[in-house]
Amino acid sequence: MTNHRWSVCLMLFLATTINYLDRQVLSLTWADFIAPEFHWTNSDYGTITGLFSIFYAVSMLFAGKFIDWMDTKKGFLWAIGVWSFGAVLHAFCGLLTSGIVAGEWTMSFLGAREAIATVGNVSMVVTVSVTLFVFARLILAIGEAGNFPAAIKATAEYFPKKDRAYATSIFNSGAQIGALLAPLTIPFIAKAWGWEMAFIVIGALGFIWMGFWVFVYDKPEKSKKVNAAELAYINQDDELDLATTAGATVSENTGKRITFKQAFRYKQTWSFAVGKFLTDGVWWFLLFWIPAYLSSVYGLDSTQSAPHVFVVYAISMISVFAAGYFPA
């Protein structure tokens, strides 16, 4: 039997890892590199992250429908393409701020920084730069919202029910892996080549992923990489359902799509929503503020705080693997 489903799972894991790497670039560069350039305060950064969270939450309401409409393969390509573009777009906020507030339109990141430093109107620098970063975060949020709906749909297409919890925990652990890799890579890229290059290098990973996804993913029944034995394994739940309903009248609702409103009638919807409500606030706080907290309270820059941030996310990663393994 072939095992192409695990190749698909690996791609989902990598997409989720890239998702969180892109999300973390700002939190790991703003305090040491971006804030001094644009005169940001904690409130300015909080405004950007708060609006990103709102954009992401609203986009999630439509992302699932979009993935269903586009299908898993094309929908995922659109999602990661949009968020990768949004990630790279952050790098050009300095160039645009330089042009708008200093009248210095340049393609040099260093030139833009020098031009901004000559501007006496600090409030204008703050307002323009924050607005540009908010726009970039909007694009990032719209794209990133498609990651988990697409990954969950791909998992449902490639794994029988008994394997889905474990497969989900594997791709979901990409969030923790991305969070782990971020402090070990992003601050050093920013220190060596500038914060702009951190956004460009990490953002480019998504475009590379897209090239592999085109060749790796097709629906199981259409994929040349899935043999008959693996296809039967993937579809074992369908065969069981057919055996169970043999000779019985199939419900007239079978195969019908449910509406957004009807989704709230299912306990699975509420259990997932409540679980995310209880955990995401803590998780996102750790993502957005731990580096800045270590900087302001303990005086650690982003490279010095990397081992401490790593430990926090390592504990989270271990917990995710355990949570997926035991239900399976």
What does the model show?
With 328 residues, this protein is mainly α. The protein has a single domain, classed as MFS general substrate transporter like domains (Growth Hormone, Chain: A), CATH 1.20.1250. It has 13 helices and no strands. The chain is elongated, with a radius of gyration of 22 Å. It starts with a helix and ends with a helix. 37% of the residues are buried.
Q: What structural category characterises the helix and strand content? A: mainly alpha
- The CATH superfamily title: MFS general substrate transporter like domains
N-to-C order of helices and strands: HHHHHHHHHHHHH
Helix content: over 70%
Instruction: Please tell me how large the radius of gyration is.
Output: 22 Å
CATH topology: Growth Hormone, Chain: A
Give the distance, in angstroms, between the N- and C-terminal Cα atoms: 21 Å
How many helices? The count is 13
Please, what is the average pLDDT? 89
- At CATH level 2, the architecture is Up-down Bundle
Beta-strand percent range? under 5%
The total strand number stands at: 0
**In CATH's first tier, which class applies?**
Mainly Alpha
Q: How would you characterize the largest beta sheet?
A: none
* Poorly predicted spans: 244-254
